[in-house]
Write a structure and sequence with these properties.
alpha+beta; Surface presentation of antigens (SPOA); four-stranded antiparallel beta sheet; 3 helices
Length: 122
């Protein structure tokens, strides 16, 4: 008679097992011994260069109480902590990656990069 029993003892978690996988299509050669075009293109271009992200521009800050914000009126002006001719910050993920000057481009804001405090290399 076959009995299935459920163990009351907790089993120790198994450690994950890593296996090496081969991506032959990235390293394949044609019958002439040369790499195919897809492998050459992937080898030359950094795949991170195609990743899209959103940048933000910070023109300044103002320190006020929540009460002052709640009582703000239309047309009230909040004075920011930066001078008009001072560089603004270009942010990626909340971190400053460059600074620049606000410009107008076809009726929209643009940013002329003037400082790169962090090298933008991958």
């Amino acid at each position: 008679m076959n009995h299935d029993y459920i163990s009351a003892q907790p089993q120790a978690p198994r450690a994950p097992v890593a296996q090496v996988i081969s991506l032959d299509e990235l390293h394949s050669e044609d019958s002439n011994g040369s790499q195919d075009a897809a492998a050459v293109v992937l080898g030359e271009a950094n795949p991170l260069h195609g990743v899209r992200t959103t940048l933000q521009v910070c023109v300044g800050e103002v320190d006020i109480t929540v009460g002052d914000l709640v009582n703000a009126k239309e047309h009230q002006v909040l004075v920011l902590d930066r001078a008009v001719d001072q560089a603004v910050d270009l942010l990626l993920g909340g971190k400053i990656v460059a600074r620049g000057q606000l410009v107008a481009v076809d009726g929209k804001f643009g940013l002329r990069i003037t400082e790169l405090p962090v090298p933008l290399k991958v």
